[in-house]
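User: Hey, my collaborator sent me this sequence without any context and asked if I could get a structure. I don't really work with proteins. Can you help?
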Amino acid sequence: YDNEAFLFLMPDTNSYGSIIATERLRNVISSSDFKNDKSPLGRLTISAGIAINLEDEWKQTVEYANSTMRTAKSIGPNMVYLHSIKDGAICVSDMAEDAAPTPEQAS
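Assistant: No problem. I've predicted the 3D structure and written it out in structure-token form, which is a compact way to encode the shape of the chain:
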């Protein structure tokens, strides 16, 4: 339960769909009963970085996701960040489904 990294590929998914899917995963994991003594929260959590591949090479997209994940981890446990070419890493944690950004806001 310590510093594991996973890569999820979500073909044909825009940033809005990626945020919703990642937030659902984060919420399921953080609300589980999995104990984690290494976490400041005492339970299993995830920190995630999302990067969208529009025209970049895959290697660059993975680097964006990895960098954004490191940003999320540096802020604290249980965080989700989205990589933005324009704005850098943007926090999208704690967005309930009904408060999630519209597709236009997440683009």
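In plain terms: Residues 58-75 form the longest helix (18 residues). You can pass these tokens on to your collaborator as they are.
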